[in-house]
Amino acid sequence: MQYWLFKSEPFKFSWDDLVSKGKAGEEWDGVRNYQARNNMRAMKVGDRGFFYHSNKGLEVVGICEVCALSHPDSTADDPRWDCVDIRAIAPVPHPVTLKDVKANENLSDMSLVNSMRLSVQPVKEEEWKEVCRMGGIDPLTLEPA
DNA sequence: GCCAACGTTGGC
DNA sequence: GCCAACGTTGGC
């Protein structure tokens, strides 16, 4: 399994919006950046991702799961844009802020810090565990820890 | 709301 | 294929 991070501006599409979509999840459309698209093309069903609120909040608020492989973005009129579908699987009990991430030396290589503008990012397994720990969630059971 | 960073576009 | 202009992202 691989790990990822999805950024969204909460006033456009928030964690609560994703939760309200339930098991069916939501097409992660609108991405018009090659690197982000390539990341989505590399995803497999069952891969997990952090859901991060950009602009407002600036924190990891939930954990989601890829529930459909990349496919053409239904909102794009250009066939080069693909996207996956994701669904919410667990909230993060104590949202992990960008400030917290920046302050943690173990996370100094995270894309969130170094590739600020990339909206769909890979997350290393150690980073995944560390952010889960900070957020008070067990990375295996997804129960509060 | 500002502006730095950075990706994309398009003229040459 | 270079690079200036431009648009967008996203933290502050």
Automatic annotation (TrEMBL):
Residues 2-134 form the EVE domain. CDD domains: EVE. SUPFAM superfamilies: PUA domain-like. Pfam families: EVE. This is EVE domain-containing protein.
